[in-house]
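Example with several molecule types.
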Amino acid sequence: MKAEAEQKEGGTAPADSARPDTKEVILDAAERLFAEKSYASVSLRELTAAAGVNLAAVNYHFGSKDALLVAVFRRGAVALNRERARLLREAEERAGGGTPPLREIVEALIAPAIRYSFTSNRLALYNQFVAFARGDGPPEAREMLDKDVGHLQRFVLPLARALPHLPQQEVYWRLHFVMGVQHSLYTDMKRLETLSGGQCHLDNLPAVTARVVDFVVAGLEAPHRVV
Amino acid sequence: MKAEAEQKEGGTAPADSARPDTKEVILDAAERLFAEKSYASVSLRELTAAAGVNLAAVNYHFGSKDALLVAVFRRGAVALNRERARLLREAEERAGGGTPPLREIVEALIAPAIRYSFTSNRLALYNQFVAFARGDGPPEAREMLDKDVGHLQRFVLPLARALPHLPQQEVYWRLHFVMGVQHSLYTDMKRLETLSGGQCHLDNLPAVTARVVDFVVAGLEAPHRVV
DNA sequence: GGTTGACGCAAACACTTGTTTGAAACTAGC
DNA sequence: GCTAGTTTCAAACAAGTGTTTGCGTCAACC
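Resulting C-alpha cells for the full complex:
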C-alpha cells in the first residue's frame, strides 16, 4: 500500500501510455462537480461514479475528501498564477523596464481566469473554497489561500505605478473589486441570459475578455474622491 | 398539528410579546450559518443548537431543510428589492419625470445590499443559492431566482437612459458586472485585509459605499468599443 | 519464475444526516 | 375547569456519509 496523498510533483505526470490516469480523472470530475453543485453536496459515490473510478480511489490517491478539494484548488491556482505571472512579465518586458500600460496589466490578471473558465468554470469554486478554508477545513487550506493572495500581491506595484493618482489603500480596494467582477462572471451566467432575454451569452472568448477589461480599467482609472 | 410551512405573511409578524419567536430565530441563525459555512455543510443539529431551539423545530415550522433555505433567501430578497425599488422611485421623483443621474441609480441598486451585508452578510449566500436552485433544489428555488432577476429588470431602462452611448446588450453585460462587484464584496473580505496588510477594513458604511459606487459608475460610463 | 509494490475492487464499518413520531407543555375560548 | 389547537421536546428511524479493510490483479525487476 502507498502512504496517503504523497506528492511526487516531479513535473506534469508524463502519462506515457493511454491509461486513464485515475488521479487526473478524479481531479477533473471533482473540479466540475464541486463547481456545479457544491463541495459538501457532492458525495464521493456520485463523484467516483461520474469519474468512472472505484469508490475507494479518492481515499487511496488523495487521503480524504478534504484533501481532494485542496488538491483541486491547488492545481487550478498553480496553473492560473503561472499564466498570470508569465503575461505580466511579458508586458513588463515590452515596456522595457518602464511601467506597462494599465490595460495590459489588467489583461494579464484576468484573461487567464476567463480563458480557464471557458472550459472548467473553476471560478465558481473559489468562494466555496474560501468558506471551506475559514470554516471546518484543514489548516492547509488556509495556507493555500494566503499563498494565492501572495501571488496577487505581485500585481500591486505595477497597478500602483499605472495609477499614480490613487493612494495605496485605494489600489487595494479596487484590485479587490476587479477580482470580484472576475469571480462572479460565470457563477451565474444564467442571470445574465435571463436578464437580457437571451440576447447575451458566452460568444467568443476575446469579446468577453474585452468587455470585462473595458469595464474594470475604467473603474480603476476613476478619480479618487476624498471621503 | 399544523400543516407544513404555511405562510401567514400578513405583514411583518408583530411579535407582540417578548417571546423568542422561534421562526424568526431560526431564520436568523440559518442566514448567518449558511453564509459563513455553506448550506450543505451546516447540519440541522448544529443550526438548531446555535438558534437555541429544538431539532424538530425546523421541520415543524418550515417543512424541510430545503424549504428553510428558500425561506431564508426569500426574506432577504424581499427586503432588498423593496428597499431598492423605494430608492429608485425617490430618485426618479427628484428627477421630476426625467432620467435620474447615473450615480443615484447605481446607489439605489447597491447601497441597500451593502447596508444589509454590514449586519448579515447575506450576499455570500447568493452564489450558493444559485447553485442550489440549478442543482438538486426544488423548482420553487428556481422560480425565486427568476423573480429576483425580474426585480433587477426594473433598473435596465433607467440605466439605458443614463448611458445613451451604450447599445442595450452592453447595458445588460455591465449591469451583470456591477452585480458581480456587489456580490463578492464581502464574500472574502479576508483577502482584502491580507492583501493590504491590514490597511483596508470595513470602516464606516458610507465610505465603502462611495468607493464601490465610484468604481462601478466609472465602469458603466466606459466608452463602448466595437469588437 | 518468483517476489515486490502499486493499484483496483466489492464489501463492510462506524457515524451522521434529515425526518418522523408520540407524548408533554403551553395558550387561549367558553 | 375543561377543551381544542398550537408549539416544544426527547427519542427513534431509515438512509446516506466518508473511510477502512482484505483480497484480487497487473506490471516490473532480480
